[in-house]
Amino acid sequence: MEEDLDEGQTQKGCLECCIKCLGGIPYPSLVATILLYAGVALFCGCGHEALSGTVTILQNYFEVVRSPVDALDVFTMIDIIKYVIYGIASAFFVYGILLMVEGFFTSGAIKDLYGDFKITTCGRCVSAWFIMLTYIFMLAWLGVTAFTSIPVFIYFNIWNICQNATVLEGASLCLDPRQYGIVPLAEAKTVCAGSEKFYKMCESTELDMTFHLFICALAGAGAAVIAMIHYLMVLSANWAYVKDACRMQKYEDIKSKEEQELHDIHSTRSKERLNAYT
Hints:
Elements (H helix, E strand, L loop, with lengths): L1 H22 L3 H34 L13 H33 L1 H7 L6 H47 L6 E2 L15 E2 L3 H8 L1 H73 L1
Antiparallel strand pairs: 1-2
């Protein structure tokens, strides 16, 4: 009987501990972190593969060759963008962890788990710094989203030309990469309807896959923007909590000081009365 009672108390203690641990998780920050990681992974992964598909299309169907000298051609720009993608993936992986840790330390559930804690000036400065940094990153991701929409627009035009050339037989439709600044104006790399390369490109899996990969990358950049906005709301709420906690801390300190002064006055008067009586 006593063993069953001890076992029940142990299970109850474990259940209460699990409930406290689950209550200590900052769920808004967790949702924002998951959304940020999903968006960054979608943007970086799909964007990298879409750029590789663009290189294949330019080399196989438009006969664009890499410059032998160290010139800033389209292939060099694609390589630079790939390195930027690597940096974005690494930087926002670390930044998501930092924001998650900041959410843990400023969450009200931590106070319930570990008791009262002191709000320092450094803590308030860190919260304000994260708000400013997240706002800057949100604007940066808005720019990335706008930039990613450009290849989506270009591939939509190419896909539309392929569809119209299939439907309208004998139509004089051409694809000229010079219109998008991909190749210099002096190089004529035009591919027109009726040529073998045109139909091979329209029927190839590279074109369709690259187009859809750029769409997924655009969706990932949009998800990252939403995650940044979500983080801004969470950080603003945490900042308001820290500010209120700081005010409450000052009030408790003043109240404790006044109570101590009243206690000292009362003790002094009691000693004076006792001395006068004796």
